[in-house]
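User: I'll paste a sequence; please echo it back and then give the predicted structure.

Assistant: Echoing your sequence first, then the prediction.
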Amino acid sequence: MGDKAREVRQQLAKKIESAKEKFQSLEDVKEVAEEGIKEADRMIRKHPYESVGVALVAGLMIGALINRR
């Protein structure tokens, strides 16, 4: 039973390390996404009318594509 327990512990340690790496990469993605959101907010505040125009055109295009079906 000692060898089996040691093997299970090693597998568990590998899985824990893998989970830590995945969590760290998720944290990195979260940081990048937050920076993107902040930059988008700055651009919208700097150019409010242009932002509304872009959103309007995008909405019209999406609506036209949906109605084509």
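The mean pLDDT is 87. The first helix runs from residue 2 to 46.
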